[in-house]
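Tutorial handout. Part one gives the primary structure; part two gives the three-dimensional structure as tokens.
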Amino acid sequence: MNAGRPDFPTLYRSEFEYVWKTLRRLGVPSRDIEDLAHDIFVVVHRQLHQFDPTRPLRPWLFGIAVRVVTDHRRTFRNSRELLAPTSAGADPVDGAPSQDQKVAEAEARSLLMRALDVLDVDRRAVLVMHDLDEVPMPEIAAALDIPVNTAYSRLRLARADVTAAIRRHRERQR
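Part two.
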């Protein structure tokens, strides 16, 4: 193996949580996350020899995750089940914030997840990588195998879609 390239067991242990969070951020239903996470690592195992260790690992993993999620959605697009939002998918929070802060954060997170659900996976992937994972745009474009200008366009459109979805939700609440 080339210097700097992680061995699979180490990569699996160190990046499983990141892949899990990425799947949640991409809108994968909780019932499918475990299966898709393992599918991603099957692909990683098969393609690890092609990974360029001079490049960041997480954008490469994110690109694989987007392709696995896209394939999964194509396969199951006609059997989509709508579930009511629950707090089960909420991130654990330590005891420092007040109960009001916790409720407000959970509501904001739930609103954001609903707004993200209106996005197609291509736009959502760019938004999550850039705004949540703070990956530079050239790395996003490389990971998703798209031109940099296309990545910027998807980010702009995704932000506009999320803003509009949040605005519609708030108007319905009035």
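Part three, for discussion. Residues 99-174 form a domain with the Arc Repressor Mutant, subunit A fold (CATH 1.10.10.10). DSSP finds seven helices and no strands in the chain.
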